[in-house]
Amino acid sequence: MGKKVYIILLFLLAILPAFSQVDNARVEVEIRGSVKGKENYAPISGVQISTNKGSYARTNSLGEFKIKAAVGDIIVFESPEIETVRYRITSEEDIDVLVEGYGDASASKKAKRETTSVRNTLLDHQRFLDSANLYKKTDLEKSIDFIARSIEPLGTSGNRAELSKSLSALGEVYMYHKQYDLAITNFKDALAARQSNSTKLLLGKTYVLNKEFENAESTLLPLIDMKNMVPYQRVELYEALGDANKGLANAKKALEYYQQGLTIAEKNQISPKVIDLNSKMADVFANEDRLVEAEGFYQNSLNLSRKVAPERLIQESEKVADYYNQKSRYADEIQLRKSTLNELKQLPKRSVTEAQPGFLGEDTITSQRINYKIANAYIAQEKLDEAIPYLEKSIVEADKEDDLVVQKDATRKLSEVYKYTGDFTKALASYQDYVAVVDSLYVRKEQELSRAARLNREIANTQNRISSLEQERELSQSKYNLAVTEQQLFEETSKRQKWIIYSLLFGIALLAFTAFLYYRSNKQQKLANNLLALKSLRTQMNPHFIFNALNSVNTYIAKSDERSANRFLSEFSVLMRSVLENSEEDFIPLTKELELLELYVKLEHSRFADKFEYEINVADNVDVDAFQIPPMLLQPYIENAIWHGLRYKEEKGFLKINVREITPDILEITIADNGIGRKQSAALKTTNQRKQKSKGMGNIKKRIEILNDMYKNRVEVSISDLNEDQTGTKVSLKLKKQ
Hints:
This protein is an alpha+beta fold. The protein has helices at residues 109-134, 140-151, 160-176, 180-193, 197-209, 213-220, 231-247, 251-267, 271-287, 291-305, 310-326, 330-345, 349-354, 367-380, 384-400, 404-421, 424-538, 543-558, 562-581, 590-607, 635-646, 678-684, 687-711; strands at residues 5-9, 29-37, 48-51, 56-58, 64-69, 74-79, 82-88, 95-99, 588-589, 612-618, 628-629, 653-663, 666-673, 715-721, 729-736.
């Protein structure tokens, strides 16, 4: 009895392929996964994996596999050690198979050691990643070193899930420290190892931070169609798309994305994101000079910030104050910044600088910087005396906090204010302080540049170390795959050779038999097609004749000529009955055909007695009974002579039908009329009439071609002008004896 198997799809926010694109087109992708024991995650090698479309693979010593397949395919797992399992592929997600009961007490010591080794490797990997996250904000170098150490235990195992986690964590570290190019590279490598929605979202956000807005949009847009994103990630996605479009100066789309994110955030009560999105929508409106809307959303963000952490309120207040400054609303700016100073004094020192990302960077929210901005607002209003105390506070606090940048700016500004107020002594003293601060700042900058250069070298070395580990892992995995492929090829070679030989022999025999059947079937099919075509063609009487004949009856009835109508109908019924009796025959005696023609011409003459006379002559030496002819073969030619030649003749015309013997085995039947001729008749016809004639003559031509093919050229027809002036028409039909 095979062991029970559980299929667990790792919905780690991986990217679905873009199939609609397009609509029902089959697009193959590379599906990856593993087969392991459920209890101990021991890898199971040698499991055969196949799809209903013919793709094949086998798990390696680590229980991993990769196979070409498309969404909708059935993937089958087969092995003597497990039950056969079938699963329909619904996305490009990796597939993990967990086998219950694999690796019990009877397993070998080697298998137990391998299981323990795998477990320890995963524990070491996660422990190093936890350490890297711990030092992520405080020690860039140490954090990167821990990530490199997390990759080392993976060795050549090719465990792409853990590798992707390490590379993604490295990208987040670089992203936090504004090394955006390195962050982008590592996020891409993480996605190459394993597709993940969260990693792709991080990549898109990093593109935005690096001002690569088009790349950000193209990266993030496919995520909109993902169905397995949690609400917080969905909000982040729309926020990042809004940021990208804001960077592309597409305000309308940016607002649409922000609004979609805001709707989800409000529905799921994600307060921080509700504040962020209100604030960002206000930024867009402000950039578009839509001040009423901007003011409304800024007020929303401030009101919402008061309900959460004080740090968030301080951050948002400073942002709104900057907006007031841009719009020269200095009184509102000063009032809001003073309120922020009061809030700031009530917070512990470390909570201010570490609570929110907005407190980091060049524009750190500190009391010395806020005092400096308040002073600038007073200066903008030319209230210099009121600005001086705030500049002095800013200088004292900056000196206390060793903030040389703010101390430099505030000292220089204070010197300028004293100069404008006419206090040159204080202006000079402040300027001398400014020069001293600049010198100190210059020395510090040199030290920072030196440390940055050293750190960059360390980062480069660590990054190279990580790249080397990845290349080594890929090389080892390639070697292993090559070895497995060679082994499979060796096992299949003899089977394939025998199969090829037997297939060739069977193919040759099958080809010969098929050729024979094809020849016989083709011959029978051709005969059947000819018979079917003949049956169809000979049952087609010219609809003009039937229609016109019935019109003639109608004319007789309208004239109250009942006797003529009855006579015409009686003769017409005799003709139709004879035609139907002969409709199943390929050939009938020439005697019957001449009788039918004579009856047909008689009917037409009764209708057009003022248009033509006719004569049917059969030579005395002709043995009419010895010849056979296809039924109603001559009727269309006679009809053409009457309707298109004689009917349009001003004076009364003449139709002559002659039957004579050319040789004892060949008979010639001629139909001659002295009508207006083919050229003039064609000029008089309408487009519809031309189509009808072409169809009628085409049917006769097809009948003759089929009959000649079946009976070896028994009928030959030629048409020519009767006279040199292209009047009159002559049809010559030569008939061979059967």
